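Aim 2 progress. For Esterase-like activity of phytase family protein, the working sequence is reproduced below.
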Amino acid sequence: MAPRGRGARPGHGVRPPAGAPRPLPGTSPAGLRRRRLGRRAALAALLGASACGLPPGSLTRPESLPEGFPDPLAGLPLRPLGVVAVDTERLGADGLSGLHVAPDLTLTAISDRGRWCQARLLLSPEGAPLGLEAPRSGPLRDIAGRPFQGFLGDAECLAALPDGSWLVGFERLHRIQRYRHLDGPAEPAPSPPGLAQWPGNGALESLGVLPDGRWLAIAESERPPGDEGARVAWIGGPRAWRRFAYRPAPGHDPSDLCPLPDGGALVLERHAAFPEGFSARLTRLPPLPDRPGTLEGELVARLAPPLPSDNWEGVSAFRHRGRDLVAVVSDDNQLFFQRTLLMVLAWTDQPAA
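Predicted structure tokens for this construct:
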């Protein structure tokens, strides 16, 4: 999703699932159109520039790293290896909000317009992204196998289960659903207690499955009582959720997370403000205890100008050629002046072979 305050976007003109509840307050079509126009004007003023198009027939285009790199990130454990801009029309999905990169370099993402996509990530021997190939995509479906309509398809986070199935977290009608295959029907999955009653925007934005099988979830903007600087978070999973608090940096909101092999996690924290535009941080959580209190991550990367930057919404950690890498993706909000960027980063203590 976009920074807080963005409304739902229309879907693909198909029927809503049987028994779907009435739209949440403020999500009528007319109200959403008014809110969407206001947001687009605000974002246009915020960014003040349009994205350049990709060459015809190209799925990606390389973006230049700043001169003097890596000085802008000196001293931090993660440093970018490269960035590409993605043609979302050729990819088959825009508004990307969740990301997973498998060991075989299959990149999977979901869209807040109710779609999924996959492609093969091409990397240089050093790990820099060279592009994407063989894209495939389709609509996310309800439990009856019908494509979602409108706000029902607002998919915001993606997590891989050990059996090869997927968890997808949705906003507006807040819930988690399981997919044995992303092109198949959904199955209900137990969500954290009280999630369904939260306001329409700013709930479940970050979801991951830790190596020990526990699920980890962080809300984008929902605060615990009495602590305006923290966000509500849960760990555990079905029938075993434990609530705790996660504290992002001031002015930042958690927009995704991914598990790490040591049992910890990376959290992507997004920032949007005038006149700076979009930026983000990556923070690392150590292996999580059964009953966390209030957690705050260690800063491991800044994703901000002079690096190419946009509305960072998805993160995935993966291993390639014996090296741990991290990928992040941005959400273009279906706006002509924003871009879908894909960046790959490496840990500075793990040089390329």
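The two ends are 37 Å apart (CA to CA). This observation will guide construct design in the next reporting period.
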